[in-house]
Amino acid sequence: MTIAGSPRILELADAAAAARQILPTDVWDFIEGGSGAETTLAENRAFLDRTWVTPRVLAGATHAETADDLLGTPVSMPLGIAPMAYQSLVHPDGELALARAARSAGTLFVVSTMSSHSVERIAETGARLWFQLYWLRDRAKTAELIERAVAAGCRALVLTLDVPVMGRRLRDMRNAFALPSGLTAAHFTEDSGSGLPGTARRSVSGSSALMVHTAAAIDPSLSWADLGWIRERTRIPLVLKGILSPKDADRAAAMGVDAIVVSNHGGRQLDGAPPAASALPAVVRTVAGRCPVYLDSGIRSGADMVKALALGAKGVLLGRPALWGLAMNGEEGAGEVLDLLRSEFEDALLLAGCSGPVAAGRLTVTTGGAPPRTEETMTEVRRR
Fold it and tell me: Which of 86, 111, 168, 330 lies in disulfide reach of 97, CB 3.0 to 4.6 Å?
């Protein structure tokens, strides 16, 4: 669905405005909301808005190369689509449309455990896929999902660490949010014993049905010792998503994980957790090149991508803006969002004096409440 006479989007805020007009209020709140007072949600953006990249001049670059790779997967820009549940809430084609848009844009798509289309069907789009895994109470089901992801050709397994329980998402609770009839968790059946998807459709005043089914399905006892169990079941790269502490990052790298995603779940879990981008430099320093570090939470422009690279990330995962595009016009709308981001990223690289993503990683970046007058007047996050 599109808005009659709507112009091509010029910034991602245009896509957000269009999506808000199209989507029912409860679905919009489910996508946009955070946990608690939404302090962390707001700070994800506020921190990036207070981050300043010092451009270099006389670089002699006539164009910027945006292409890169994410864990060996070639991409047109260092960006992948983050795992997001139940995308058919936003558009009937859901994950199928967004995966097709990712394929056309030359980037990758991370399939959610709670996808509304199966990994097998999504693989048929030809998109380059990673698979996001929750640690389920049903260990046989967890093993099955790993096997299905590998068989479908997923190139990495992304284990989400920060959902022992679902955060208190007050918008969903006030809306008594529940999945509509006909929308299912495609990797589960009613009789799977997981509590899915039946509990997700039971609307109860003052409660979120998704909080109920998360408690029924996800095992909060996940620990470092369980990583070995996963490693025994697949040789594809293992990515840990949801790390903010340098101590956790150090332990993960020491155990040989293939990549880390610094993320606070888009501000949807612990309200009061630090903005993801603020945690990134310390994690990168601690990991010290043992594995790539990616950033998730808050990316809203190509300039944000350059900031993330300057802070030490090797790439980013994009969440809500991809859903805005999907809501606007399915595959075409999502493709428009991704095309805009790539164009913005190329412009930001050139304006910063960078010939490509590697050069962006060498930029000086500062953080603070106002733009730096000189490099000495602000606290430098990193100097190269």
Answer: 330
